[in-house]
Structures are given as C-alpha cells and as structure tokens.
Write a structure and sequence with these properties.
Length: about 375
C-alpha cells in the first residue's frame, strides 16, 4: 500500500486525479462537438442541471474541457444519437455506447424491485403508449388534464407521472429538448440500431463501473465506485472484483494521512503528468470532478456548492454568481479565496482571463464584483475585471 505522507505526495495524487478528469490540459478531447463527444465518452456522464442562475451545469461541464463548445451542441448530440438521457445518481446525459448499463435499473423499476412512483397508473401508462405509437412523440405539456397546476415535480399531474414512469422503466426515451421541455418517443424509435441492448450480467456491470471510475477519476474508494447505487448485489460484486484485481496485482491501494484508502491501477502514479499552467478554470458545482463530496474533501479538504476555482492543481477559491439575462450582465455576488502560496498578481491575472471566457460563455457583455474575501482583494479584483 502506498502511503501519502508528505504535501508533495498529496499534491501529485491530486494532480493525477485532476488529469484523469482532463482538467489540466487546454483541449484534451479536441474542439467543438467532436470534442464534446470524446469528453462524455471519457468522463462517463454529465449531470443535467435545472438551475439557471448561471449557464446550466450540463453545458458548463463540457465548456470546462472543450474549447469552442456551444450549449446547443448538447441537444445536437442527443438528436444525433451520440448520447441519451437517463438516471445515474441524478438525471444525466450518458454515452450511447453505455446504454445497456441503464437496463438493470429500468428492469428493477418495471419489476417492482425498486420504485420511481410507488403506485403507477398502469392503465394510463398503456393509454399513453397507444397514443405515442399512433400519433408520434409527445411533450409533457401536451398532456391536458383538469388538475390545478402545482409547484414541484412531485406534484405533477397523473398523466405526467405516467409519462415519467414509462421513461424510467425504459419504454420511452427523450428524443429532443427545448430548454427543460422534454419530448418523449418510443425507445424502439429513438435508439440507434447499432446499440447493444443485451442486459449485462452482474459481473459485466461491475467491470464496467470499476473500469469507468478508474478511467475518469484515476483513484476511487470502494464506496465511491458505487456512488449512490443502492443495489447490494452490485456492491458485493464490485467489492469482489476489486479484491480479485488487488490479488492479481492489477490494482494497488493508496492511503491518505487521514487513514482513508483509495484504489488505482498499479503503477498509475508513476506515469508522466501534464505540466501545471497558470490557467484558471471556473468549474460547475456539479462537475464530475467535485460531485462526490466525500472524495473531494479527502483530496482537497473542501466541499463546494458554489463555483470552484481551480488553479495550478489546487482549488483555491469559490464564487457565487448570477446572470442577469435581460441586461446581459454577470454579477459575482461573492468571491472567497482560500489561503494560497501563489503570487497575487498571477492569481488575479489568471482570474481575469478565466472571467473573460466565462462571461462570453454566459453570453454577457459585462461583469461586476460585489465583494471578495480576503477583503483586501476586493478593490484590486474590481479594477482588474
């Protein structure tokens, strides 16, 4: 077992984890829509975000890794059959090549092993399928009932609940999106013909999870490998696979000073890593690199729900932003910088460069800063931006 004893050892482990997410290179996947396809195939999923205070997270994740990415490209990939929507630990876009690994959860819902809605209206679900089969794709807002509209997805009208249940069971897929208005069609009409639809065995599913997590995160805890998956048989199978690969020497363990243990491919930490640059990245709080909060705290000490600032392999700050779309103005409501050992002028310069790109990504013409912490940075940053 590798012991992480020194700050230098920890810094290399962090750098390895960030490189596995492809956050240290300027264009690790290429540019535009081709780069976006490569990106999601590597990182495995992109969480769909309902919050529009700034540009939505599912676009932001691509933006952080793919130069010349435009938000419209996400729906283009959906329409082209490069990606599909389903549930991981949350609603997400996933590579179409991984479609078969969505089948176990769909089967569990349809068979009643687990529930999406506890008492689905099977009669109404059957009527909806008949309507879609005869009339074509349907949007949830196309459904008409006399029920008074109420706030929140848990208060959806019965027909909308039935539509969602059909989607979660796998009879329907999302075939198009207009913002957050989803269009559903029969899976057989949406799914490209070349896609593997064989139900994976539990062993195949475990191999997929372990390989994917180590590919996109570099290191993983046993708990993190099955993050938010409540299938006890799957967890046992993943654990058995990890123990087997450890005994074969294919995997090794690394232990932090806190005692936490992670696994990684044998020899992975000996590989050459990209050089650190002075480029700053403004990440989404739902970015794949930070969404597992326990893992984030173990490696970087902080869990972020604002926008994390990544600089030279360290999360050095976070900011709370709001886009005023009518005025095309990006407001930084607060900016908090952790204590760091970097030169202030270099950090400020990197922040300004990052904000120029981020403002354009948000389709804003101006930017302002309300306050920063430490306080002495406030005026300097205001002048700089």
């Amino acid at each position: 077992m590798i012991k992480i004893k020194t700050p230098k050892d920890l810094a290399r482990l962090r750098r390895f984890a960030l490189d596995s997410q492809r956050l240290l290179q300027i264009q690790p996947f290429g540019q535009g829509i081709a780069g976006a396809r490569n990106a999601i195939n590597h990182i495995g999923y992109v969480q769909i975000d309902t919050i529009s205070v700034v540009e939505r997270a599912h676009h932001h994740v691509f933006y952080s890794r793919v130069p010349k990415f435009k938000p419209a490209m996400t729906n283009h990939m959906l329409l082209d059959g490069d990606i599909f929507e389903y549930w991981t630990h949350a609603a997400a876009f996933l590579p179409i090549a991984d479609f078969r690994f969505s089948l176990p959860y769909k089967h569990a819902i349809k068979s009643g092993q687990t529930h999406w809605y506890r008492n689905p209206d099977r009669k109404l679900m059957g009527e909806l399928l008949v309507r879609i089969r005869s009339d074509g794709p349907i949007r949830s807002r196309d459904l008409e009932t006399n029920t008074t509209k109420r706030e929140g997805w848990w208060d959806w009208k019965p027909a909308k609940k039935a539509l969602e249940q059909l989607y979660m069971e796998g009879d329907l897929m999302v075939c198009d999106r207009e913002g957050f208005q989803k269009t559903y069609n029969l899976t057989e009409r949406v799914l490209p013909s070349h896609v593997d639809t064989h139900m994976p065995s539990m062993d195949e599913f475990a191999v997929h999870i372990v390989d994917q997590q180590l590919r996109c995160h570099g290191i993983a805890s046993l708990k993190g490998l099955t993050y938010q998956r409540r299938n006890s048989e799957l967890r046992k199978t993943v654990k058995s696979l990890v123990l087997e690969r450890l005994s074969q020497g294919l995997l090794e363990q690394v232990q932090l000073a806190s005692g936490e243990v992670f696994i990684l491919e044998t020899g992975a930490l000996d590989k050459r890593l990209p050089r650190l640059s002075n480029r700053m990245l403004i990440l989404s709080p739902f970015d794949n690199s930070v969404i597992q909060r326990e893992r984030l705290r173990s490696l970087f000490q902080y869990g972020y729900f604002c926008l994390p600032l990544l600089y030279r392999g360290e999360f050095i700050g976070r900011m709370d932003c709001k886009v005023h779309r009518k005025d095309k103005h990006l407001e930084i409501k607060s900016l908090y910088m952790e204590p760091y050992d970097f030169d202030d002028e270099l950090v400020i310069s990197a922040f300004v460069d990052a904000m120029i790109m981020f403002r354009k990504f948000q389709q804003c013409d101006s930017v302002s800063l309300i306050e920063a912490n430490p306080k002495y940075l406030t005026q300097r940053l205001r002048c700089a931006i």
